[in-house]
Design a protein that fits this description.
single chain; alpha/beta; Peroxisomal Thiolase, Chain A, domain 1; 2 domains; eleven-stranded mixed beta sheet; 15 helices; globular
Length: 420
């Protein structure tokens, strides 16, 4: 099994649209939540979201969209994109630049791309309504590829001329963590030399607000209180969108190219709850097994873990389930790992979350800190015995675990090791 390293990152997120800003936000616990203007209506109980800055993608005509001047995107390319398509395109450009890759190095049969998104309910709903009202032939030619699940990999594979393995993943909030795990396998098994991993979501009204019907969204009007994982008074998650791109490379490619290395991807594990279509197992059984598998396949013991980036979304049931799973995994650890949820800063990115938070872990390992878990006023007593840090620690973690859980009880745990 070949070693696998992260050599490039790209971010379009609610806490920053570049590496430097994201690192500062994580270190300073600066969140991206606001009172979201489209939610400020009497019939909408949810008031807070974590939007993307410096992009305007609220028009159904892509040619009306606005984005930072540093990115150059052709009109014909835009026509096949969803809002999160443009986010992922820009994050991909960042990652390519960060890894210092040439086109010859990313466009070849040994370089692949795995992506995850839920598609664009915003554009899909628009196109279906137009078809019903104006006729079948009024749907735009690229309406399907711009809006359905898979739109991210369709666009990035074609625009960046990817010639290796490519596919999309759909396991709800575990999707891009699954993408990263299977991308790791491609390289570790020698099938590919390099993989791009992408998670992306629109993060607009149509992709966030339907979760209100599940009673999953926070009803807090104060942006500083709405997302507070592990707090006793948490009442739901805050929705966000954006994109994160990671470049994974084999040890041979790292030795040949001598790029900057963020960390090693040591391994991963997965397991299912087999419990409920939408709710985590109350004891966190699937997540516990996923973490145990990840550590076993990485040849690491629980007591070697320095930091855990928890999935914790700020829902009453989900956070409790994960807390119980963490207690079960680390019950014999003489030095408890530091634990935090960066969703207190970003909000919950749905299928974006796994890749985004893996990127945060890689960045923190390179920069030498562990981000705190923000907005906790009173820690839930159910978390007693867990080292949930409320302030950023200025220490470089050597081993990091990152958790993701999705609908149907899909659980993924990713393990990263310091490369220094």
């Amino acid at each position: 099994m070949r070693k696998v390293y992260i050599t490039g990152l790209g971010f379009i997120t609610s806490i920053g649209n570049d590496l430097l800003t994201v690192a500062e936000s994580l270190r300073d616990l600066r969140h991206g939540m606001v009172q979201y203007p489209p939610f400020q209506k009497a019939d909408v109980p949810v008031k807070v979201a974590a939007p993307i800055r410096d992009f305007q993608t609220d028009s159904t005509d892509q040619e009306d969209w606005l984005f930072p001047a540093r990115y150059s995107i052709r009109r014909e390319t835009l026509r096949g994109m969803a809002p999160h398509g443009i986010y992922s395109y820009c994050a991909m450009q960042q990652a390519v630049e960060d890894a210092k890759l040439t086109e010859a190095e990313w466009s070849n049969p040994q370089t692949g791309l795995y992506a995850a998104s839920a598609g664009s309910p915003f554009l899909l709903g628009h196109h279906l309504e137009k078809m019903r009202k104006q006729g079948v032939m009024r749907c735009p030619p690229l309406g399907i590829v711009a809006s359905i699940s898979g739109t991210v990999n369709f666009n990035l594979v074609s625009q960046f001329k990817i010639k290796g393995a490519s596919t999309g993943f759909s396991s709800a909030c575990a999707s891009s963590a699954h993408a990263l795990g299977f991308a790791y396998d491609e390289i570790a098994l020698g099938r590919q030399k390099r993989m791009f991993v992408i998670g992306a979501e629109d993060g607009n009204v149509e992709s966030i607000l339907p979760f209100a019907g599940m009673r999953a969204l926070s009803l807090q009007a104060d942006p500083g209180l709405a997302s507070r994982p592990f707090d006793e008074a948490r009442d739901g998650f805050v929705g966000t969108g954006g994109a994160a791109v990671l470049v994974l490379e084999s040890e041979e490619e790292v030795a040949r190219r001598q790029p900057k290395v963020y960390c090693e991807v040591a391994g991963w594990g997965q397991a299912s709850d087999g419990h409920n279509v939408a709710i985590s197992h109350p004891e966190g059984s699937g997540l516990r097994v996923a973490m145990e598998n990840a550590l076993k396949y990485s040849d690491l013991a629980a007591e070697q873990v320095d930091y855990v980036n928890a999935h914790a979304t700020s829902t009453p049931i989900g956070d409790l389930s994960e807390a119980r799973a963490l207690k079960a995994v680390f019950r014999n650890s003489p030095t408890r790992p530091a634990i935090s949820s960066t969703k207190a800063l970003t909000g919950h990115g749905l299928s974006l979350a796994g890749a985004m938070e893996a990127g945060f872990c890689a960045l923190a390992m390179k920069e030498g800190f562990m981000p705190g878990s923000a907005h906790i006023t009173r820690l839930d007593p159910a978390c007693d015995g867990l080292n949930i840090i409320r302030a950023t620690l200025p220490h470089r973690p050597q081993v990091v675990l990152s958790n993701s859980s999705g609908f149907g009880g899909a659980n993924v745990a990713l393990v990263f090791k310091s490369a220094s």
